[in-house]
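Re: the pair you flagged

First of the two:
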Amino acid sequence: MTTPGVPNRPVLAVRWRAAATLAATSLVGLVAFLWPFLAQPGSGLSHNADAPWLFVLLIALLAALVVAELSDGGLDAKTVAVLGVLAAAGGALRVLGAGTAGLEPMFFLLVVAGRVLGRGVGFVLGALAVLVGAFLTGGVGPWAPFQMIAAGWVGFGAGCLPRAGGRTERAILAGYGLVVGLIFGLLMNLWFWPFLASGAPAGMGFVPGDAVSANLSRYGTFYLATSLGWDLPRGVLTAVLVMVAGRPVLASLRRGTRRAAFGASGTFVEGHGTGRG
């Protein structure tokens, strides 16, 4: 339940150190996803070879983000505990939806938790939930770091949404869930599409050294023909779950954060001790 007339906003703000680390992580992610449109022919880049290095770099940046939040007071033991529980829940939800026509209930959790806890925690939650799910399913491969980055952006974006309350908030979150369900697939195809070569349908393959606009056009055609039917159910499921279960889950998360008093710090006031002279 929310206070009438008071728009909801994320509990935890991002401090400057965490913001700088988030920016660095997002820059690495953008380069990892978009390099095919910028690299020169014969560059020799291959995700089978560079994904382990990207994974190590991403883990280091996530650790740096957590340390930055801890040092700035954005995270404490209570927040870390909640983050761990939510990451485990996200991993379990990912197992439930793995390989089923794009239906992934994990994205519902990322949207509502990112909304309540904020951008920084939302990003870390998205990345950790994917990592936990990968370990549970044995699905750790060259795609894993790309999924971690993309899911992190989902949680981050939920924390950036405009302030609102009640049905308006749920409608915004549902629309966001529908959109990110599509964008997640749009991004994830980029980890393998440049390497399909002759395996891609005619006119839909990556051509090294060709104009960016031409490759983007071919990729758009490839996405519509091969991936949209898989990604749309993900977005629709996320939107439906937000509208059906969003209210109680949002309320539970907010109630838990209020009781945990995230971001509050204790102070000692002279003359208010319990001892008696």
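Second of the two:
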Amino acid sequence: MKKILIISLCVFFPLLISCGGSGGDDGNNGGDGNGGGNPSGPVAPKPATLSKPANNSECLEVDAVKFEWNKSDDTTSYTIVVKNLLNQASISQTTTSTNVEITLTKGFPYSWYVISTNTGTATATSATWKFYLSGTPQKNHAPFPAEIIAPKPGETVNLGTVQLSWSFIDIDSGDSHTFDIYLDKKDASTVNVSNYTATKKTVSINDTGTYYWKVITKDNHGASSDSGVSTFVVIE
């Protein structure tokens, strides 16, 4: 099998570390899957612990990104899911190993997680980590797309005041940020507020129905990212 020579460097601002150096959890804890399963069947697998690339880091890769995680108990195979956070395109690959190399398009932020499986029906999902695949060193990086916290996608809320909230990460820790919030009943193309500085906003909803909203995160260098459209349903 032809080997791919990979030269990788991962920058975890402001320190330089090897691409795939261990990083902290982003607060998204791995799940236990579907429980213990049938008592007479296989024990449910445990979630894998991610290792490389580091969480919230910048990676410089020649050809492919090498993903690594620790072996999880009661697991016979792993499915890694990698998502481009700008165009939402996902790649998945199943392996019996605890590492895999995947070629990705440079210049995009990505997220990744691992699903542990065995011969039973239960699965377990690891935490989700993020990294930025630059290709070449950059002085500034666009913030990672904001993650919608509330209302949760598809959640039903009561008519009246609704609190919108979200979170975001930027590997350039010294940057300042503002947010443009889009909200309407069609396609989230209507600006509700621009250059907002908090990550929570209370809005007044006077009509029932399905609402579409998104958050554009902007840094002080002119770079921006789009959370993607989320929805919630308002009832009386």
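Residues 1-18, 20-37 have pLDDT under 50 and may be disordered.

-B.
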